[in-house]
Structures are given as C-alpha cells and as structure tokens.
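Hi V.,

You were right to ask for the full record rather than a summary. Here it is.
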Amino acid sequence: MRPSIQQSPAISGAAFRKGIFAGIAGLSLAGTVAGCAPSTADSTPGAAGNPATPSAGSSALAGSGGGYKDGTFSADGNYVSPNGTETVGVQLTLAAGKVTDVQITQHPSNPNTRKFQGQFAGGIAAQVVGKNIDELNVSKVAGSSLTSGGFNQAVDKIKAEAQ
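Predicted structure:
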C-alpha cells in the first residue's frame, strides 16, 4: 500500500492573473497617493537645483518689506512626481517685500508634467501677486498639487537671495 500524499488545490491560470492584476492595481494606487503627498526632500536646504540668482535688472537697494531687496529674482525648484523628479523655474519681481509679478518656466519631462505645469503657470499669479513674500506657501493651483512643492522650494531660494 502506498502512502497517500495530500496535494494543495491548484490555482487556475485565470485566478492567478486576476490576483496579479489586483496586486499591480493596488501598488499603482499606493504610488499615486504617495506622489501627491508633500515630500520632505522638496524643502531640504541644499537640494539639487540652481541657486537663486538676481537678474541683471535687480536693484541692490533694500525695500521696506521684511528687509528684501527690490528686483527680479529667479530660481529653480524640484519636486517628485509619479514620473520622477521634476523641475519648475520661478521668477519673482519684488517691491517692498511684496510680489509684483511672477513668471513660471516649465521644464516638463513628459506630456503629463507639461499639462500640470501649464495649469500651475496659468493660475499662480492670482494666488501670489500682491502678497508679501513671507506669506507665500502654495499647495494646489488650478488642479496641480505637486508643482507647488517645486514652487515653494524656489521661493525659499529667492528669499535667501533677496535678503
């Protein structure tokens, strides 16, 4: 008499594929949600990127608002998206510590980034022009929530340069 060996029930190919797809979908969702969360790396001093530099038209005279120089200052800020690290260029014009103009330079690495940086660029002026530079901390502009991390990083660099 042979001893009987108990075998585990086999998983059908369809059930296996269904489980794999469900796992991949779950990981995708987790990655998307994680991509929307603010990253501490985005605000770390000394992070990669160009330092803030005043443009040739900036004034060395200090304005009366918070000790910031009047002039036009530019910096790049980085942020992490589901597609990797992205960069956005920010140019602020300051007068007496208040933002009088803002320009965004887009550096998209793919069509999705181009879309969101474009939306951000189209809506940022309404949120920052006329405000004191120390009050700037944007979170979501025109449907773009990740680009604001790069914008805020660039503003921090501009603040340091404009003092």
